[in-house]
TrEMBL record, chains A, B:
PROSITE patterns, A to Z: HTH_LACI_1 (PS00356), HTH_LACI_2 (PS50932)
Record carries keyword DNA-binding: yes
InterPro entries, A to Z: HTH_LacI (IPR000843), LacI/GalR-like_sensor (IPR046335), Lambda_DNA-bd_dom_sf (IPR010982), Peripla_BP_I (IPR028082)
One GO molecular-function entry: transcription cis-regulatory region binding
Recorded superkingdom: Bacteria
Pfam family, one: LacI
CDD domains xref list: HTH_LacI (cd01392), PBP1_CcpA-like (cd19975)
Coiled coil: none
Entry protein name: Transcriptional regulator, LacI family
Keywords, in A-Z order: DNA-binding, Transcription, Transcription regulation
Organism: Tepidibacter formicigenes DSM 15518
Amino acid sequence: MVTIKDVAKKAGVSISTVSRVINNSKPVSNEIRQRVLKVIKETGYVPNPLARSLVTKKSQLIGVIVPDISDFFMGELLNGIEEVGKIYDYDILLCNSYGEPDEELKYINLLKSKQVAGIIFVSWKMEKRHVEAIESGNIPAVYISKNAKDFDIYSVSIDNFKASYEMTKYLIENGHKKIAFIKSSVQDSIMDSDRFKGYKKALEENNIKLEETLIKEGDSTSESGHYLMNEIFEFKNIPDAVFAANDEVAVGVINCILDNGYKVPEDISVAGFNDIKLASLYRPSLTTIKQPIYDMGAVSIRMIVKMINEEEIGDKNIYLPYKLIERQSVSKK
Amino acid sequence: MVTIKDVAKKAGVSISTVSRVINNSKPVSNEIRQRVLKVIKETGYVPNPLARSLVTKKSQLIGVIVPDISDFFMGELLNGIEEVGKIYDYDILLCNSYGEPDEELKYINLLKSKQVAGIIFVSWKMEKRHVEAIESGNIPAVYISKNAKDFDIYSVSIDNFKASYEMTKYLIENGHKKIAFIKSSVQDSIMDSDRFKGYKKALEENNIKLEETLIKEGDSTSESGHYLMNEIFEFKNIPDAVFAANDEVAVGVINCILDNGYKVPEDISVAGFNDIKLASLYRPSLTTIKQPIYDMGAVSIRMIVKMINEEEIGDKNIYLPYKLIERQSVSKK
DNA sequence: TTGTACGCGTTATCAC
DNA sequence: GTGATAACGCGTACAA
């Protein structure tokens, strides 16, 4: 491996000079600059990021902690993070926490010891100790989590309350009165409450009373959706629409409805949340709330970069626009 | 940040001694060991991985280059890599190449300069220059690619020829004679040939002649599947079954068939390849070849670790077992 | 068994 | 504008 020393020697200058040309840190006479550049090209010299980080105390690594890599949501999010990160020359150190708080904490400390330039923390549900661990490191961080707004931190999300309210209203306006709501309990947090609150408000405004037997909660998998929908069927209190906490759950719900001999959306309508790739692929295609997942990733890392460069950031909590996507899974009036 | 020096001073020993206890590299008297350990605990000292890598020339980082993070396949693969990596204390440096050869090459060099302990290179289609770039670095590497076996390298895959042969045979045995085949051209490589060859052999054995108008190729997205299936429809030479290069394509194919007013599998059967999560979620659920994606990731990183530790590895090319999964998208006799 | 001193490849602080 | 040289935090021959 060719080092700065080799380049210096071959160019007949000191390593300081070489350092200056590669970093543009101080003026160097044009003649020497060209000579050094030439040698660099010839030798194929690449600065050692490790040595560099060791002295500057900064790496070009952004640590990203996610609860589940194979979750459709994370893939798109990571895409956004990666793509924008590349623009600013940052690489991604990926950590899969399996949504376990202890793992999350372990990774936070690991990332700190690796002196990452920033952390993007994606979590189903954050705890105080996580925030404290990150913030104490004095390292730029952005949070993507259902309950991020409980803390005084930088976060990226959408307005879940409003989105949920709109979707519920949409269902009602299209003639649905008996609307089941399925939330994911791993997210028995503010944000789920937000979505639930939006649902509740829409019902209230339309004088529809909440039915306990139509409110279910499980985790955020399709299996869970299938299971919970079955419970609803067993109760014989059949809804004419189901609003699921996320698209995977929604698909599980639809499959269950189909398995029970009903049709979607003719007999029962189903709405999802997130608009992951699956939502448009699945048939019937899912009416859902489109979260700008890719953008959320992109914005997160952009914020980190700004923090690193000490640029001005507006609000600590960024709310991105969402959109109600009408597809086939909800029948229209 | 507390360093090895601080620990040494506080414990009243030299830094070498501290280094020895944390690395177990040389004998240290029990008394001193305990004292050092105690100080480490008290101070919460964590060795700086950067400084460590700088001197040992080895990091605890495994670089993973994938062509598309949001691809369902990659998510599951990364899961396997991450989980096993964690066991051996390796972290994942994630690179998204977008399947572009130049990007791939750039990342390979980046990873080398970061002195990663190993590289897992996932690619739609590898070129000689990629292999050369990696192998010249003398760094452990495992390849997951359609055409990995063209090179003398470590790779993990399944026997695509046999799998494809079996699926085609299965279709034929269930009464299908006009079987379309859709490959993904980004993979116009050996492996696709392998799958294509398997398809061809099965047809030959059953005296079915190959029909050019039923062979299509595009990329590996559902959009591509939809588009190609449309082309087949336009040709008015309707098949009674379609064998798609992968599940996403298969879903696109089915959606197209549905859009054209046909039923799956009653009118046309569709088989996929890979068995990603989507395959069982989608309705009709996909009959497909189950690749052990998670295991492929797990095995890959396990191989890397073995290479790092200079343990014995058996074959250079690992073939994992696959399985034909019967679901709803193919009608049975 | 323990400590000293050097080197890993860079950047940064001085002098010149 | 340029060049020594001290750091960064750690591992490890070499001495003791």
